[in-house]
């Protein structure tokens, strides 16, 4: 491959695809390269049973109709789960199961109070400029700490001792809508009109001359500007050789935003084993520290998604797919009883910490490092630009956040090209 255009876009996830589309709208030519064999990045759907889709990455359109992918889905004729989302967005519907027993009304209310008090403590720490770890400002001895800890480990992919209060509070977005036939499929359909060179990993980026040259196994791409949309896991891995090195402030930004890991296990059943009231969010935990978040029938099929994150998520991933399967089925059995085991027909498990194209699920700011998202977004020498969910303050960790970052970067590039003309 040998190509020359005004911009080379590195990565064909949500950020790279939206950047290409925005550059095209602005009349700027761009070449998109992607290291893996497909587009979509961390938006990826697999069929768990015929006609039933499981999203290994993003699965819900945060903020519902305010999410740009809601309009995109409508334009493509792709159905969203607008009529079923209340079972997931109402916190009163959240079920808490401890040692196999659902909390009663008084315990449930006490658990919700603990959540509210902890959220207030985290917000107070973020508001007073003391960007502590979340674990430093919460009551870890409470009976209701375990489900909250699980919500952070799955929500950020990092345990509470490694999550910045400020970063947590700057994140935005309600759960929104599920995509019954796959968020990954939606992103792939939207990006299908973008010409992407696949299996073309950026191995070296040189911006020492007037333009930029990106070396790949399929040849070099030359351009006036480059947009890097890969994860901080890839940026920190050394797999991309940045000629002459990145400036210290950029390296500090990358290191301050390491990747978290949330792994999920999709379990499909041969019938409805949940009952009419089973649909919704569940958090299960036990006194032996086994805990998980379980989304039941979220896509309108006889399936569940079981989530675990942080250190436990990585540990379980290393045990292999059978261990992940067993863990997930055990958690579902804690909610609906052991009879569900004979109705399991298939599972899919993720392994995000070892995923070679991302090395994690999303970026999570270390305590004291929330400001690094803005630094990560800063261009270098007005030739090397950056986008992706890790560059967002509000919308971090989301597919639509990555989408918006691509548009932002494309507009910055367009302005820079205009200044240079």
Any key phrases for this structure?
single chain; 421 residues; alpha/beta; FAD/NAD(P)-binding domain; Polyamine Oxidase, Chain A, domain 2; 2 domains; eight-stranded mixed beta sheet; seven-stranded mixed beta sheet; 13 helices; 21 strands
Outline the structure in words.
The chain has helices at residues 14-25, 68-76, 86-89, 105-127, 145-156, 165-170, 183-190, 232-237, 248-255, 310-319, 321-336, 372-377, 399-420; strands at 3-10, 30-33, 45-49, 52-55, 60-61, 95-98, 101-102, 177-178, 196-197, 204-206, 212-216, 219-228, 241-242, 259-260, 262-269, 280-285, 291-296, 303-309, 344-349, 362-363, 384-386. With 421 residues, the chain is α/β, with parallel strands linked by helices. The protein folds into 2 domains: 3-39 and 194-258 and 363-420, FAD/NAD(P)-binding domain (3-Layer(bba) Sandwich), CATH 3.50.50; 86-174 and 262-354, Polyamine Oxidase, Chain A, domain 2, CATH 3.90.660. The strands form 5 sheets. Strands 1, 2, 9, 10, 11, 12, 13 and 21 form an 8-stranded mixed sheet that branches. Helix 1 runs parallel beside helix 13 and helix 2 (68-76) crosses helix 7. The chain is globular, with a radius of gyration of 22 Å. The two termini are 27 Å apart.
